[in-house]
Structure formats: structure tokens, C-alpha cells
């Protein structure tokens, strides 16, 4: 599969911590929405958390972040700027699975339920744990 050519913007590496803080805010907001059974809100926040974690990673490792609407290109950018081994590449798949649900949870007017959110939450928590290790580890 040919990687998507991501539009990118230069970002000073220390700003990666700001993007990480934003990701954590979205993650915590998703947890609250999930606890209160606001399933669509939780899903949207999960998607945005995953995007912000990815931006934090690409900024830290490459001084760039993806710019544009194709968030799958952000996964390709992450693969390009970070030295990822085989287990790391498997973790990036969690991000891709979350992004695959972006339109469905955000734009299609579908009502989400617990059964729709639980897989997203599983992918996000695994991706977050990996991202935290890469950023702080």
C-alpha cells in the first residue's frame, strides 16, 4: 500500500507537549461522556483524542504535524517521522481503527450506544498507553 502524502506543517518540537495536553483533555472528556452515557459525545472526543496524540507524536519525533482532513495521512506521517518497530506499527493500527469510525460518529447522524463505543474505547486506551510511553518514556 502506498503511503498517503500528508500535507504537513512545521511545529517546534516543544509544542508536542501542548498537543499531548490537549489529547489528555479530550481523553478525560471522553471518559466523562462515557460515564454519563453520552455515547456520541464520547465517540467524537475519542476520535479527537487519538488525532491529538498522533499530532503530539509526529511533532516530538519529526517537528511536523499533519494538516488537512485526511487523518489516515497522519498515520502515514507518523510512520515516516518516527522509528517504529513491528510492535509499534501494530499500535498505529489502533489509531487507524478509531479514524475509520470518525465519519460515522461525527457526521452521519447515527445514534451511538455502549456497544458502539466500547471497541473505540479499547483502541483509544491502548493507543494512549503506547503514545504516553513514546512521549514520556
Lay out the secondary structure.
Blueprint: E1 8-10, H1 16-35, H2 39-62, E2 64-66, H3 71-81, H4 86-100, H5 102-106, H6 114-136
Helix pairs in contact: 1-2, 1-6, 2-3, 2-6, 3-4, 4-6
Largest sheet: 2 strands, antiparallel
Sheet-strand content, in percent, reads: under 5%
Count of beta strands: 2
Could you give the distance between the termini? 30 Å
Overall 3D geometry? globular
Tell me about this structure.
The chain is mainly alpha-helical and 137 residues long. The model has no long low-confidence stretch (mean pLDDT 92). The chain has helices at 16-35, 39-62, 71-81, 86-100, 102-106, 114-136; strands at 8-10, 64-66. The protein contains 6 helices and 2 strands.
Short note summarizing the structure:
The protein is 72% helix and 4% strand. It is mostly helical and 137 residues long.
Descriptors:
mainly alpha; 137 residues; two-stranded antiparallel sheet; single chain
Amino acid at each position: 500500500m502506498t503511503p498517503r502524502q500528508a500535507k504537513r506543517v512545521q511545529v517546534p518540537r516543544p509544542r508536542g507537549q501542548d498537543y499531548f495536553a490537549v489529547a489528555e483533555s479530550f481523553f478525560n472528556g471522553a471518559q466523562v461522556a462515557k460515564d454519563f452515557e453520552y455515547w456520541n459525545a464520547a465517540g467524537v472526543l475519542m476520535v479527537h483524542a487519538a488525532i491529538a496524540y498522533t499530532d503530539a507524536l509526529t511533532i516530538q519525533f519529526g517537528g511536523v504535524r499533519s494538516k488537512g482532513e485526511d487523518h489516515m495521512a497522519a498515520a502515514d506521517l507518523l510512520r515516516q517521522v518516527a522509528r517504529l518497530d513491528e510492535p509499534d506499527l501494530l499500535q498505529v493500527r489502533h489509531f487507524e481503527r478509531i479514524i475509520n469510525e470518525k465519519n460515522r460518529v461525527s457526521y452521519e447522524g447515527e445514534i451511538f450506544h455502549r456497544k458502539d463505543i466500547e471497541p473505540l474505547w479499547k483502541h483509544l486506551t491502548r493507543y494512549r498507553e503506547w503514545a504516553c510511553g513514546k512521549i514520556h518514556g
